[in-house]
Amino acid sequence: MPKKVESKTEEMPEGLNLFFKWLFLILGVPSLSYIFLWTSIEYTFETAKTGLQIFMGISLFVILIGYIYFSIKYLIEETKEYFK
Questions:
Q1: For the whole model, what pTM was predicted?
Q2: 12-53: per-residue pLDDT in tens?
Q3: What 8-state DSSP symbol labels residue 50?
Q4: Cα dist. 37→10, 22, 31, 51, 68 in Å?
């Protein structure tokens, strides 16, 4: 029978995990959002021909703005909890 091996991995410390979340928010979200927001704006105002296409472009814009807002809000709350 094979031996049972115990895992020796450890979880990432909470502070380091929080650091990487902020790093992604600062570096990753603006670049990704710029690409998607620019695409949605360009699509809405230059390519869209029907009302549904314009609605879809504006909806994408609103969803991305909401994602950025709530990710910042969540990280601020998580950071406050960590430093209490």
A1: 0.59
A2: 788 888 888 888 888 877 777 777 777 777 777 777 778 877
A3: S
A4: 38, 21, 10, 19, 11
